């Protein structure tokens, strides 16, 4: 039933779409397909072989796509500029607010408080599950790379204290971080896909958490057990050259640590606000007094802004920081996300070029005619680009642009599931062209072969399990 319904909706959407922009050419279908292939191929070649920054690769790929599709030279970057602007306006502010919350969480010791509290109350046999839980909670507001840097030293300390293979506790933590990175806003990939596909953020957030829970369980604690047999690592004796726990950097000297409850509240506050908004909208109670308030508070920008302001109090003045220190801390949170914002913006420009040139409509119509359900098609496109480029963000951006015409005719829940299917595909088969592959390899001190047997396998299992859960949800909602 799901397959038939989604194909019908997708076919209607593809047929009903108007020509996107005045700059759209009257090119033939073969020319538009060649344009899409050429644009994506340029991006892949520039990133993989020439090691060009994804921002520049996306700009050049958009130009090649536009020219090949027959758009005039003077209008080559018109759609790109419009897409970049709208994407940064819609997604960039949310990423910046998320960066503020994450920076405050880390530097205040709030993240440490969550980790320490959970570990202190967990029996040794349950520590892999505890690490997955920690990664799941802490990973909500943190970018993947930040989460890895934060949690891997903790993983090594736990493995050292347990005198066990670090894979046993490391894989669950990595699974939690990776699942949140690919499936749950306010991470950049899901946010960009939501923007491109016109999905509802609250619904996507709720379904994303629903998909992430069983996915992390299977790809984390359960998968870690056989992986420890296949890759036998000795308990760590040092952490990147630091011989003891005291060697870890301490950014909270002289400050009071926030409580566990306060730390968790800051992490979950935007999630709760956005979910409450979705519940009110689904229940049709937006016209009531409380419904109007919850709808406003659950607006993504409002929810993250309120959380950032609350975090300034909870992780700032409440623990002894001065206003000047808080200002400096907020300012320092923006530098690490500059590259992410540029890539996300350029991705939005590439997506808009796909749409305005007519390429997206042609590909969407082809998918509908081929009898492939949009959920599976979105996963396949994202997975192929992920394998080729090594970038989950580029995979999400490109797949969302290609699938955007099909999303127009989908129900809100199915549009959200399409976002999640693309997100699942974007983490598939991480290998040597992915920076995360080398980050994990170096932290764990593994060989390339061992990294393939652990990290790469975990990412692939996580991607496939997430897809299966998405397809299951699509069949019942």
TrEMBL record:
Subcellular location, record wording: Cell membrane
Membrane disposition: Multi-pass membrane protein
Location (main, coarse): membrane
Entry coiled-coil feature ranges: none
Signal sequence range: 1-23
InterPro entries reported for this sequence: Glcn_transporter
Family the UniProt entry places it in: Belongs to the GntP permease family.
Pfam family, any one: GntP_permease
Protein's UniProt name: Gluconate:H+ symporter
Residue stretches spanning the membrane: 33-50, 55-74, 80-106, 127-159, 201-225, 260-280, 300-319, 326-350, 392-410, 416-440, 452-476
Keywords: Cell membrane, Membrane, Signal, Transmembrane, Transmembrane helix, Transport
């Amino acid at each position: 039933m799901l397959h038939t319904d989604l194909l019908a909706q997708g076919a209607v959407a593809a047929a009903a779409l108007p020509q996107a922009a005045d700059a759209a050419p009257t090119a033939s279908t073969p020319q538009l397909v060649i344009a899409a292939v050429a644009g994506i191929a340029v991006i892949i070649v520039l990133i993989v072989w020439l090691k060009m920054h994804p921002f520049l690769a996306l700009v050049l790929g958009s130009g090649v796509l536009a020219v090949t599709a027959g758009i005039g030279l003077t209008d080559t970057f018109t759609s790109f500029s419009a897409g970049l602007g709208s994407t940064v306006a819609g997604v960039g502010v949310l990423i910046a607010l998320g960066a503020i919350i994450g920076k405050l969480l880390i530097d205040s010791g709030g993240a440490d408080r969550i980790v320490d509290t959970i570990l202190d109350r967990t029996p040794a046999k349950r520590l892999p599950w505890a690490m997955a839980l920690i990664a799941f909670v802490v990973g909500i507001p943190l970018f993947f790379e930040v989460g890895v840097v934060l949690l891997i030293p903790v993983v090594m300390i736990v493995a050292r204290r347990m005198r066990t293979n670090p894979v046993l506790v490391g894989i669950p933590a990595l699974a939690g971080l990776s699942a949140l990175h690919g499936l749950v806003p306010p991470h950049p990939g899901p946010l960009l896909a939501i923007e491109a596909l016109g999905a509802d953020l609250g619904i996507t957030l709720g379904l994303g958490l629903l998909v992430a829970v069983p996915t992390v369980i299977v790809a984390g604690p359960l998968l870690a057990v056989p992986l420890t047999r296949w890759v036998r690592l000795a308990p760590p004796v040092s952490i990147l050259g630091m011989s003891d726990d005291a060697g870890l950097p301490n950014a909270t000297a002289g400050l009071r640590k926030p409580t566990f409850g306060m730390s968790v509240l800051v992490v979950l506050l935007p999630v709760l606000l956005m979910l409450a908004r979705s519940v009110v909208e689904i229940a049709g109670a937006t016209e009531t007094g409380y419904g109007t308030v919850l709808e406003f508070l659950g607006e993504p920008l409002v929810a993250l802004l309120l959380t950032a302001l609350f975090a300034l109090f909870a992780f700032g003045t409440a623990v002894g920081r001065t206003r000047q220190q808080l200002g400096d801390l907020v300012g320092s949170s923006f530098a690490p996300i500059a590259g992410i914002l540029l890539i996300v913006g350029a991705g939005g420009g590439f997506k808009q070029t796909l749409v305005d040139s007519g390429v997206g409509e042609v590909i969407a119509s082809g998918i509908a005619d081929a009898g492939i359900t949009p959920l599976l098609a979105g996963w396949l496109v994202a997975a192929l680009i992920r394998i080729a480029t090594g970038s989950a963000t580029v995979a999400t951006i490109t797949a969302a642009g290609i699938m955007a015409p099909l999303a127009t005719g989908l129900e809100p829940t199915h549009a959200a599931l399409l976002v999640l299917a693309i997100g699942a595909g974007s983490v598939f088969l991480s290998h040597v062209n992915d920076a995360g592959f080398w980050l994990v390899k170096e932290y764990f001190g593994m060989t390339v072969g061992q990294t393939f047997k652990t990290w790469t396998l975990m990412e692939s299992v996580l991607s496939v399990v997430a897809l299966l859960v998405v397809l299951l949800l699509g069949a019942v909602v």
